[in-house]
Amino acid sequence: MSALHPIISVTGSSGAGTTSVTRTFQWIFTREHIKSAIIEGDSFHRFNRAEMKAKMAEAAQQGNKHFSHFGPEANLLAELEALFRSYGENGTGRVRRYLHDAGEAEPYRQEPGTFTPWQDIAPGSEMLFYEGLHGGYVGDGVDVARHVDLLVGVVPIINLEWIQKLHRDQNLRGYSQEAVVDTILRRMPDYINHICSQFSRTHVNFQRVPTVDTSNPFIARDIPSADESMVVIRFADPKGIDFGYLLSMLHDSWMSRPNNIVCPGGKMGLAMQLIFTPMILRLMDRRKRA
């Protein structure tokens, strides 16, 4: 952790909703005039799209049907830790972008599913913000989490996470349900071994829980809306959290445990604003005093 160059990391699995959380943080950065360096976890995948398909096929031929982006073998986690360490120490580091689609790839004149060249983080940023799969990873001689000043988990309950992934991959990416289910099954061991454990290290966790029946996620016609959900917010250390203020500002919320507050799903954005704005301002104040 660094007082002079703070790092915020949002970690969650593919389809968990981390992208919408990132937008909330970006809004706070804009409002508070904070210059942030934004890092996408996909940029630290080890293989481009074509290479990953080949590696999965190769692994399957060797009897490993669970090779996935969730596991350490498919990611540059030592390089991610090196970036966090370098940024925390002196505000610098090497980054690149993963180009998901034709729109992202066109300005670079590259194919979708490829990486841009590595380059130095632009000078002058005040804070590093990471969103991806491994922002709280620890294992295999790598400790990404220890460099993070604010670690946030975004974890829908598993059936809701599957519904969100099914709808995103089918509707936005054109995959068949069978292909999405195959991906879910292939990733499951890595999800259990490498993703779940990160949520015990987070400073704040957001878990969306639907209030409608999601017992069979594979037949759900739509994603439960925010109004059909509750959000469980867990604080690793409740000291210094003004729960009375949060309860007064988040209508119809309540505390389920001394470090848990439950609020309506539609209030998740507001809850993040109320919780993270003072945390970010404290990090910035600590930076100025350093």
Mean pLDDT level: 93
Rg: 19 Å
Q: Oligomerization state of this entry? A: single chain
Structural class by sheet pairing and helices: alpha/beta
Distance between the termini: 13 Å
Dominant shape = globular
Give the low-confidence spans.
none
Instruction: Specify the helix fraction band.
Output: 25-40%
Give a count of the beta strands, DSSP E runs of length 2 or more.
14
Instruction: Encode the helix/strand succession as letters.
Output: EHEHHEEHEEEEEEHHEEHEEH
The biggest beta sheet, please?
A: 8 strands, mixed
Strand order of the largest sheet: 2-7-1-10-11-12-14-13
The number of helical elements comes to: 8
- Strand proportion, as a percent range, falls in 15-25%
Keywords, separated by commas or semicolons:
single chain; 290 residues; alpha/beta; two-stranded antiparallel ribbon; globular
Q: Could you walk me through the main structural features you see in this protein, from its secondary elements to its overall organization?
A:
By secondary structure, the protein is an alpha/beta fold. Helices cover 37% and strands 19% of the residues. The protein is built from eight helices and 14 strands. It has helices at residues 18-31, 49-61, 77-90, 102-105, 158-171, 177-195, 243-249, 268-289; strands spanning 7-11, 36-40, 94-95, 98-99, 114-115, 119-120, 127-132, 138-139, 142-143, 150-154, 204-210, 229-235, 254-257, 260-264. The strands form four sheets. Strands 2-7-1-10-11-12-14-13 form an eight-stranded mixed β-sheet, sandwiched between helices. Helix 1 (18-31) packs across helix 8 and helix 5 crosses helix 6. It is globular.
